[in-house]
Design a protein that fits this description.
Blueprint: E1 3-5, E2 11-13, E3 24-25, E4 28-29, H1 30-38, E5 47-50, E6 63-66, H2 68-74, H3 79-84, E7 99-101, E8 110-112, H4 114-128
């Protein structure tokens, strides 16, 4: 495989990456080819995650098998991961006892601060009188 090693130990894929920044080898993702060459076949329900966060790294020791959810939640940029790491609502109340609402778009669960939800419901009752 065509790669160079950087200071972090990443094996950087030398060929031009695809539009998302991943290396390709014979029509397959280069990091998947390397995982299977050094480890084992990738189960259908798992994905390869770059521990180093370098998309064109093909170093098998920088790769990890994860579920789709695990891969998303480990991300630094995915909105679901960013929101999952939040511990307080925008007004500073703890999400420790947050209400989980499933009525949003596509029925995806999202947290609502119990204090803010209660205050909003009270304000609505006052307005409706």
């Amino acid at each position: 495989m065509n790669h160079t090693v950087n200071a972090k130990g990443c094996w950087i894929w030398n060929n031009k990456p695809d539009s998302q920044g991943y290396g390709r080898h014979s029509g397959k993702y280069a990091h998947r080819v390397m995982w299977e060459a050094f480890n084992s076949p990738i189960p259908k329900h798992l994905q390869i995650d770059h521990i180093c966060n370098v998309r064109n790294c093909v170093n098998p020791s920088h790769l990890q098998l994860l579920t789709s959810q695990g891969n998303i939640l480990r991300s630094n940029t995915a909105p679901a991961a960013i929101n999952a790491r939040k511990t307080h609502c925008p007004k500073g109340h703890s999400y420790a006892d947050a209400y989980v609402d499933y009525r949003g778009p596509n029925r995806h669960p999202h947290r609502q601060c119990r204090h803010c939800r209660s205050a909003a419901a009270k304000a609505k009752r006052v307005r409706d009188r």
